[in-house]
Design goal:
single chain, about 400 residues
Length: about 400
Amino acid sequence: MNQTLQRLALDSTLAVLIFAVAVGCACVLDLLLNWLGGYFKLAANPATSKLAPLEGLRGVLAISVAAHHACCWYFFSQSGIWSTGGSVIFARLAGFGVMQFFFISGFLFWRKSIKQGKIPLCNFYLSRLVRITPTYYVCIAIALLIGLVSNGLQLQVSWGALLASLLPWLLFTLSGMPSVNNVDLTRITCGVTWTLALEWTFYLSLPLLGWFCRKTIRLFHYAFLFGALYLAGWYLRLPVVHLEHLQNTGFFIDGFAKFMLIGFGGGILIAQLELRLQSWLRFLLPWRNWMLLGLYITYLCSPGMLVLDEVLLLTGFTLVVQGADIFGFLASRPVRLLGRISYPVYLVHGLVYYVAMKLRGGTYAVEIYSYSVETAVCLAVILLLATMIHLSIEQPSIKLSESFARRAWSSN
C-alpha cells in the first residue's frame, strides 16, 4: 500500500509538471503572437467566448494524450514493451483524452443538427475534408520523411507495394495502419490516427443519424440500433466463427458501435438534453467547478471501473457544457490557445518524441529525472511546431471550411 501511494504521488507530481510546462509554453506563445500582431494575433485570439471551457478542454485533452505517450516511450526505452509501467494516472490519461474528444464531436455535430435540421451532404463533407485533410497530410508526410531518413532514404519495397501501403494512410487509416517502405509509421505517430478513422466513420454515418435527432424519444431507437450492432460484432468475434474476414468485420462493427454508444453517443445525449440539463442542474451550478475537479481526480487516480469510467467522464463533460471551467483554468487564454492548436498537437507529438529518441542515440534506458527534462523540451518543441502548422496550414483551412459549412447549413 505504501509503495502504491508513493507511486501515485510521483505520477501525479509528474503529470502536474507536464501540464504546467505546457501551459507555461502556451503563455509564452500567446504573448509572442500578440506581440507580432496582425494575422498572428488574430489566429491566437479566441474567436468567441461561447462554450469557452470546451475550447480549453480540447487543449487539456491533447496534452493528456501527449503525456500518456511520453510515459509509454519512457517504459519502452526501459523494457522494449509499449506500456505505462503500471502507472494508473498515465494509463488513464489516454482514455481521459480520447473519450472526451469523441464527446465533443458528438455534442457539436448533434447540436448543430438539432438547430439546423437536415445536413446538405455535399458541402458538409467538403467542409470536413478542407478542415481535416491539409493538416493531417502534412503531419503524415513529416512522419514518412522521418521514417525514410531513419532507413537511409532507400527504397526497400517495390513501387506497387509502396503505393498500396500509402493508400490506407491517405484514407485516414480507415483500412489499417501498414508499414510504408518498412517504416513503422504507427510507432512514429504513436498510433493516434485510429481516432480519425472513427471520426470519419461517424461523419459518414450522419445521414443515417439525422432521423434520430428530430425527437428525443428516438434516442432509445438509437441506443437499440447500436446496441444490436455491438452484440452482432461481439458474436462475429467469437471463436465459433471460423472465417477470419468475418471476425475482422466483427472487430470493426463492435468497436464502431461501442464508440457510437459511449463515445460520440455521450456527446449526442448531452446535446439532445442540453436545455433540460440546464434546468435540472441549476441548483448544482455554484459547486460545478469543485464537482468537475473531483470527477477528474477520481477518474485519473482510480483503476479501470468499466462503465463507471464513462459515467464519470460524461458527468464531467456535462458540467463543462454547463459552464464549469475549473475556476477559470479552461477559459484562460493560454489553455484556449492549446485548444486552438490541439489538432496539430495531437498529430505531431509522437513525431517529436520519436526524433528525440533518435537524436539521443536510440531507445535506451535513462533516469526519470533526465527523461523529465527531455520531455519538457519535447513539449516546447511540440507546441512550437503545432503553432507553426496551425498558423500556416490549419487556420487557412478553418476559414475555408467555415465558408463551406455556412453555405451547407444556410442552404436548409
